[in-house]
Design brief:
Oligomer: heterodimer
Largest sheet of chain A: none
Mean pLDDT of chain B: 86
Order of helices and strands of chain B: HEHEEHEEEE
Structural class of chain A: mainly alpha
Distance between the termini of chain B: 51 Å
Largest interface: A-B, 46 and 56 residues
Strand content of chain B: 15-25%
Number of strands of chain A: 0
Helix content of chain A: over 70%
Order of helices and strands of chain A: HHHHHHHHHHHHHHH
Distance between the termini of chain A: 31 Å
Largest sheet of chain B: 5 strands, mixed
Number of helices of chain B: 3
Radius of gyration of chain B: 23 Å
Shape of chain B: globular
Helix content of chain B: 25-40%
Chain lengths: 269, 177
């Protein structure tokens, strides 16, 4: 329960602290509108992002500068976290309309993470990719590079080969961001295509980065396809041990693609 | 058109006046927009809510599902998914698509209540789904009885939770979050 309290406090604080923009950036750009709204938000009291007070303050900031896209995105978060997707989308559409390169990645990621709107996410991420000449960047929670998210969307709409190519191309880049589950997803894609050698290589790479229950679970499936029941059982035992030690895919808000649950391991043993 | 650019000193000097002006001119407009105490709050409605469902710490202290480091359903989310797989009958519903979200409260004893349903089409617009879809989803959600109750050393916790159903042609494709 102490963990619960600590987590609650951290979540509250992280939600309550407003983006500490350097308002002077707007001043240097000659944008007195956003500068005034930014300063207003910096001076205003901090409130938890779900509260009415938070939204009234941000509404005032919108009155000061209606074209300040970040404000709409900040307001949208409360609706995202409470499942009011209609209001969330209205606010995020406004943010994207005002500043597409800044907000398309976030909107696309949320469509994928919270709604499994794969086509909508692909549209946003590919539109962003076409607009910029720099890196797509990472997901809001930092777990994924957005190209990996894009690949997973393609996987989920039945285009595994496209997903594999996107992941491979991303991982082949020098100095790129490698997420905690990238090689696991690649391995599962190969496994589902029956390319067991490639799957093994990806799972081995995953083990170097992050030893989680899912890798062992899918390794067991690979061994089963090879007819090696003994190795499969051993891998499942490892998966169970890791799961019970909380070494598995985890996201406080939702579940990831390829996540497995304790019941699935126990039923396979 | 000549662009008005003010230097830093002038802006800082003018800022309080600008704020005051905006506050004066916007107060009336802002006051028209009202929010619940917290976005997503579900207050008791005698017409649709079970009067025997009670929160342990009152409405104002209910927290959000993601505040827990422990998943709040016994058997994890797969147990919920399996209940819907077993009980939802897609053969007797309209071939509609979109999302349906059911939000509710869970009290410290693990009892759920105050269910609210919202439908949305594939363009993120409000949608009223075939009642055979909505009613089944609501009834199965209401029948879920393995929510965990939580309490600290100082007080019991009530929390908000929701299920979002990705519906394609009347079938459940995904359950989130």
């Amino acid at each position: 329960m102490k963990q619960l309290l600590v987590l609650s406090i951290i979540l509250w604080l992280s939600s309550a602290v407003k983006a500490q923009d350097n308002c002077n950036v707007f001043l240097w750009e000659g944008d007195s509108c956003r500068y005034a709204a930014c300063r207003y938000l910096q001076e205003a009291p901090n409130y938890f992002q779900l509260t009415d007070k938070f939204h009234l303050i941000y509404d005032t900031a919108i009155m000061i500068c209606p074209n300040y896209s970040d404000i709409y995105r900040e307001k949208s978060t409360a609706y995202l976290k409470t499942g009011d997707w209609i209001t969330w989308k209205e606010l995020m559409d406004k943010a994207v309309e005002l500043n597409p390169t800044e907000h398309l990645g976030y909107r696309g990621w949320c469509k994928f993470q919270f709604l499994r709107d794969y086509e909508g996410a692909i549209q946003d991420l590919e539109r962003l990719d076409a607009l910029i000449d720099y890196d797509l960047g990472q997901s809001q929670n930092g777990m994924y590079h957005l190209q990996i998210a894009l690949a997973l969307c393609y996987k989920m709409i039945g285009q595994p080969q496209k997903a594999i190519e996107l992941i491979k191309n991303h991982l082949a880049k020098a100095d790129t961001y490698v997420g905690n589950f990238d090689y696991l997803h690649l391995g599962v894609l190969y496994l589902e295509k029956g390319e067991l050698g490639e799957a093994q290589a990806a799972f081995a790479a995953q083990e170097e980065i992050n030893k989680i229950a899912e890798t062992a679970y899918y390794q067991a499936q690979r061994y089963e396809q090879l007819g090696d029941e003994k190795a499969a059982r051993k891998a499942l035992t490892i998966a169970l041990k890791r799961y019970l030690n909380h070494r598995m895919m985890y996201d406080p808000y939702t579940h990831q693609v390829d996540k497995i649950y304790l019941a699935q391991i126990e039923e396979s043993l | 058109m000549k662009q008005l650019i003010l230097d830093d000193r002038k802006i800082i000097w003018l800022l309080p006046l600008v704020m005051l002006l905006f506050q004066c001119t916007t107060e009336q407009k802002i006051s028209k927009k009202t929010y619940p105490r917290m976005i997503g709050d579900i207050t008791f409605d005698a017409e649709q809510d079970d009067p025997t469902f009670e929160l342990c710490s009152g409405d104002s202290l209910a927290i959000q599902y993601y505040a827990f480091d422990e998943k709040p359903y016994k058997g994890e989310k797969i147990a919920i998914e399996r209940r819907f797989e077993e009980q939802y009958d897609a053969s007797r519903v309209a071939q509609e698509s979109g999302w349906i979200r059911i939000r509710f409260l869970v009290n410290c004893k693990g009892e759920a209540g105050r269910f609210r349903v919202v439908g949305m089409d594939e363009n993120y617009e409000a949608k009223v789904f075939d009642s055979n879809i909505t009613r089944q989803l609501l009834e199965i959600t209401q029948s879920l009885d393995q929510w965990k109750g939580f309490e600290s050393e100082t007080r019991p916790f009530d929390y908000y939770n929701y299920l979002t159903f990705r519906i394609i042609d009347g079938t459940i494709k995904e359950i989130l979050p």
